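Hi support team,

I submitted a single chain yesterday and got back a structure, but I'm not sure I'm reading the C-alpha cell output correctly. Could someone confirm the output below corresponds to the sequence I sent? I've pasted both exactly as they appear in my results page.

Thanks,
R.
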Amino acid sequence: MSNYSVCASSAALALILCALLAPGQKVHAESQDITAIEEIVVSSRYRSEKLSDVPDSITPFTVEEIERYRIERINRVASLTPNLRFSDDQEVGISTLVIRGVRQNRGTGQPPVSFRIDGVSATNNLLTTQELFDIESVDVLRGPQGALYGRNAIGGAILVSTRQPSAKPEYGFRLTAAQGKDFTLAASASGPLGDDRVLYRTSFRYQDREGQLRNAYLDNQYVDYKESVAFRGRLLFKPSERLSVDLRGQYLDQDGGSGYFMPGSEGFLPLPPPAAPILFGNPTYEIQSNRIGRSFVKSWETSAKIDYDLGWGTLTSITSYTDVDSGNDQDLDQTLFEAIDIVVIDESETIAQELRLVSESARALRWVAGVQYFTQDRYRSLATTFLGTPVPPAAQDLELEDFAAFGNLSYDLADDLELTLAFRYDEETPKDATQGRSETFNELQPKASLAYSFREGSLAYVTVGKGFRAGGFNNLAPGSNFLPGFGAESLISYEAGLKGTAAGGRFRGGISLFFIDYDDQQYFLFDQTGTQANINVRKSEITGGELEFTALPTDTLQINFGLGFTDSEIKEHEDIPGVLVPASAILGRKVPGAPVWSLNLALQHTYRLSDSMDLVSRLDYEHRDKTYWTLDNVDTQPAYDLTNLSFAIENERWSARLYAENLFDEEYIEWFFAARFIGLPADIAWPSKPRQFGLEYSLRF
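Hi R., thanks for writing in. Yes, this is the structure output for that exact sequence:
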C-alpha cells in the first residue's frame, strides 16, 4: 500500500473516531428527537400494521434512512439487508439478485422476488436496475410471498413506495457531484390542483457519468460511463370520501457501457479438428475488450390504482401497461482479440390487472381476496459474430399469460395469538412462437403462520409456505446443445422468528431461522452461440438465518446491525445437455451465488451545532464472506469488506453531505462466469466499483 493510501486511511479513521465518539449534546426537538427508535409501520398485508406485529422477516427503510444511506438503486438496499445480494454486470439493464440462495434468472427468465413500486409490479426483469428517486419507503420481505405479491415472489418481495402527492405545495431539489465526473440532478414538485380533491406530484432525475474504470488497451477509454433520465408524474383524484383514483406515469432511459468483463483465465479458442486451438495469451483480470461496449434500456409505464371504501372493506383495482426496449452491443470474448461479438435486442409489452378486496382491520377476522391477470409479448434476439463471420441469431418471440387467484386470512385465536392462512393459485402459459411450442404450468401455493405476542411490541412466529416460479423456453441459437425448455421450480420454506422492542424503545430487533426444501431450482447459463438458457437442478436444500437490530445506546448514537447466514447442498442432479460439467462434479456442492455469511454494521452520530442545525456522521461497514460462483464450487470470491463514510450538515429545509463509497478502494469480483460451463475462450469476471468521493446538496421548501 502506498504512503498516500496509508495517510488517507489514517485520516479517514481519525475522522470516524472524532465524529462517532464526540460527546455531543442531546438532539433538540426541532431537528430530531431520538430518545426512542421511530416506530415502523408497514402495509405488507395491505393494511397498516406495526412492524413487530407482522409474522414475516422484514427489513424496512424509512424516508430518513433512504436519504442518509443514499439509496438510489436496489443494490444499495441489498448491501444493508441480510441474505440479499444484488450484482450489476454486462449492461445497464442486467442484474443478478439472490435472496436466501434463491437467484435471478437472466435473459427472458424471471427474478426471484416480486418487485413493486406503489403496488405496481415491475413486469420485466430489466426494470430491477432502475434508479429509485423521490422515494418514501422500501420494505424487503424474505420468504415466499406469492399469496399477496404474485408472480416470482418465490424468494420474497421488495416493496417501494414513492412520495405521495401533498395537500400543500412542496418542492425539492438535489444536486450531486462525485468522482468520475458523475453528476446527478433531481427535483420534485407537489401540491393541489385547484382544491384538495385533485393533488399532483412530479419528479425527475438526471445522471451523467464519464466513468472510473478504463480499458487500458483502447487508449484508456472509460467503460463504465452512463447517462440516465427518469421522470415520474402522479395525479391523485378524490371525488368523494370513499373513492380515490391514483394515476401514475413513469419514463426511464438509461444508456451506458456494456460488456467490460475481465478475463479470469488465459484464453484459447477451440476450433473444429484438424485445426489446433488458437491460444490468446491474454492478461487476466484486466479490462481489455477490443471494443467499447454500449447498451440502453428505455421504458414507459402507466398505471391506474382505484380504491373504493365499502365501509366493511376496500375494493382496489390496479391496471398497468409497460413498454420496455433494450439493446446491447459488446465484445463477448472480453479479450484483446476479435473473436466473438454479440448484439442483443430485447423488446416487450405487458398488460397487468389486479382486483383486490381487503376487509377492515378492527376485527378478529381479517382477510384479503383477489385475482390477477398478466400478459406479455416479448421479443429477444442475440446475434453473434464468430471470427468475423456472422452466426444465425438466437431469436425468441415469446408470449406469456398468467391468471391467478389469491387470498389471505388472519384470525385472532386469542388476544395474543394469531393464525394466518394464505394461498395463491397460478396458471401460467408461455408460448414460444419461434419454436412453435407452448406449455402450461399450474401450482397451488399455500402458506400458514402462527404468531404469539408474549408482550406489547414482541412477537414469536412460525411459518410454512410454498413458493413457485414457472418454467419456460430457452432462447436457442443453431448449434447449441441446450434443451429447448426448462421446468418450473418450487420450494417449501419453514421459518421461525422472534422480533420486538426493548429498553423503553431504544432497541428494536429480530431473529429468524429458515430451512428451504428446493425442487428443480433454475440456473442461468449461456454459450458462445448466443444461446441463453435456464436449466433445472433437481433437488437442493438451504438452511440459514438472519439477525437484525437497531439500538440507541445514547441520545446521539444509533447502531444498525445485520447478520445473514446461508448453508446449502445440492442433493440430486443429473447430466443435462449443454452443461459441459458432469453431474458428479456438482452433486453435493453448495448452491452458488450468495455469500455464506454477510454482515452489515452502521454507526450514526448526531451532534447539535445550533438550534436549527445538526452534524450527522455515518459509518457503514459491510462484510461479505466467501461466495461460490459455479455449481461445482471450483470458482469462489474470497471474503472482502466494504466501508462507506459520510458527514452531513442537516437543517429542516436543507442538507449538505460529503461522502465516500468503498472508502478503502477494495477490489473484488461482482459476478463471474466460468469458461468450462459456457464454452467461451476464458473465464470472465465483472469488476467492482472503485472508491468514489462525492458531495451532495438537498433543498426542500
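A quick pointer for reading it: The first helix runs from residue 3 to 21. Let us know if anything else looks off.

Best,
Support desk
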